[in-house]
Amino acid sequence: MEHGSLTDSKNSTFCLMDEDHTLANSVRFLLNKDPRVEFCGYSIPHPSENKVNIRVQTTGDSAKDVLKESFQDLIFLCQHVRSTFEKSVADFKSTQSRQEMNGA
Questions:
Q1: Distance CA 14, CA 62 (A)
Q2: Rounded distance, CA 87 to CA 65, Å?
Q3: For residue 8, which of 70, 53, 61, 54 has the smallest C-alpha distance?
Q4: With 70 as the cut, is the pLDDT of residue 104 above it?
Q5: Which H or E run contains 43?
Q6: pLDDT tens for residues 41-83?
Q7: Domain containing 49 — which CATH number?
Q8: Is the pLDDT of residue 4 over 70?
Q9: Residue 97 CA, distance from chain mean position
Q10: Domain count within the chain
Q11: What are phi and psi of 13, to 5 degrees?
Q12: Fewest CB within 10 A of the end CB: N or C in the chain?
C-alpha cells in the first residue's frame, strides 16, 4: 500500500503487511546506498502488528520505482549469498572427504 501525493511521485510512504525488521532494515540499507535516494527510513507502528512503514524520498525518480529496484537488488543479493554459501559447503565437504580418504 502506498501513501503519498498524487502530484509528487518522488516522496512516498509504503506500508508492507506481514513484515518486520528483517525485510525493512535490509531494504532500508540498500535504499540508503542508492544515490537517487535523499532519505529512507522505516518504522513499525506497534510491536503487536506485523506491519512496516517505509518512507522513501528521492532526488527526482519515482519513489515507487526506486523501491521496486531495491527489492530486485535484495533478491539478487540473497541469491548470491546463497550460491556462495552452497559452494563453500560443497568445497568443505569435498575437502573433508579427501582428508578422510587420506587418513588425516
A1: 13
A2: 33
A3: 61
A4: no
A5: strand 37-43
A6: 999 999 888 899 999 999 999 999 999 999 999 999 999 999 9
A7: 3.30.1360.10
A8: no
A9: 36
A10: 1
A11: -120, 130
A12: C
Strand partners, 4: 12
Q: Identify the domain containing residue 47 by its residue range.
A: 2-101
C-alpha cell at 30: 540498500
Residue 88: Cβ within 10 Å count = 10
pLDDT in tens, 5-47: 667 889 999 999 999 999 999 999 999 999 999 999 999 999 8
How far from the centroid of its chain's Cα atoms is residue 86's Cα? Answer: 20
With residues binned 3-state (H G I as helix, E B as strand, rest as coil), the percentages for the chain, rounded to 5, are 50, 25, 25
CB 37 within 8 A of CB 58: yes
Model pTM greater than 0.85? no
